[in-house]
Amino acid sequence: MAKCEICNKGVSFGIRVSHSHRRTNRTWKPNVKRVSAIVNGTPRRIYVCTRCLRSGKVTRAV
User: Fold this and answer.
1) Which among 29, 37, 43 has a CA at the least distance from the CA of 5?
2) Does some domain include residue 35?
3) 10-42 pLDDT per residue, tens
4) Residue 19: domain span
5) Quick one: which of 1, 15, 42, 46 is 20 to 30 A from 59 by CA?
6) In this structure, what are the phi and psi dihedrals at residue 20, rounded to the nearest 5 degrees?
7) C-alpha angle 49/56/46, rounded to 5°?
């Protein structure tokens, strides 16, 4: 799975607990998009999470 190249957000792991309290492993995957962004003055395609896109940490190339 891809990581966000701005904040390094990646897959995190935990335990799913059912109503009867049976425990199994689960994963939380980040909402990562492949966008064309301006990096060091040149447009480049990078993986960015939607939180970084929404907060304005990334300037998208047109």
Assistant:
1) 37
2) yes
3) 999 999 999 999 999 999 999 999 999 999 999
4) 12-55
5) 1
6) -85, 10
7) 40
